[in-house]
Amino acid sequence: MRARGKRLRTIGAVLAALALLVGTIGSVQAKSTAKASSAAWWQPRPGEAKNWDWQIDEPYNVSQPRTMYDLDLWELADGGPNSYLEYPGHPELPRIQVEEGALAGKVDELHRRGAKVICYLDSGAYEHDENRADRHLFPGYKANLNDIPDNPSPPEPGSVIGWHTNDGQWPGERYLDIRRQSWPRFAHLIWARFALAKRLGCDGVEPDQNDMGPSSGNAPGWEMTDDDQIDWYLEVARQAHALGLSVGLKNGHDLSDRTRFPELVQAFDWALPEECVSLDQCDNLSPFIAAGKAVFAVDYTVNQRTDRRACQAHVSRDFDGIIKDEPPTSAFRKQCKP
Fold first, then answer.
1. Can you say whether residue 113 is alpha, beta or left, with left for phi > 0 and alpha for psi between -120 and 50 degrees?
2. Which of 160, 161, 240, 323 allows an S-S link to 334, with CB 3.0 to 4.6 Å?
3. Is residue 6 predicted with pLDDT exceeding 60?
């Protein structure tokens, strides 16, 4: 910005003013650069972590020298003094110890090897899984999964547990009521999971199953709008950053109205889209690349021809793509970007 004032009368004065201006600009630029480079959490740029892997089901194997591993939070729990869930502001809820998982101790091991560790968890879904130590705290919980209403029966009044996800591929996984009016009934349970990830040493989180607006094609059990979905995504990012955790946009890129998508690009540090090639949605992620943010694209293996086509699509868009088995395990991985 150029300041206005009295016209300088001498060349010397002009030069002095220019020198002062250049110095000031340089100082501001240096401060801005320092601020940008001293982020409190991991903000990967395209290509920075192209050698990554995603494993959220057995078998697990983290012996390979990867730049980043994305692993299930509950399996990373070590059962130690930091392995618990607590709920500040909710004295009626007990502190819950989280048992040791199959990957106990791997966060520290991977950090010693120089790898980043992202912790996968459901933030938009309930899981009727015995190793989810907090499942009984969700309003609408019942010991018998079959007693929780499912499609086409409406959720019970006051329940935040809706219909099954992914066409019933995971029978115990049900959408949560992410509409803003329901946040006070369950959001603190999700933020406690984020706090667990922080205590375990996770560098960031991959929060899943948040896309249930009409653009997603999913059926959560309640009337949702895309704004409901976006508002929840933004709160998820805000809560993760409040703990100093890196956070990725998991899916959620298929909005029919793109008006608010820039808000998501600004809020999240990276994106992890599933099947953007097979669903013809990869171009929706280009704003992340334009913003200098990595896109960890995943397409699932079918055959060599489709795998090759998916990789070509990833590489042409500067995505850090991989081809994986479904669900993602250590059994299959193909890195697209050399």
1. alpha
2. 323
3. no
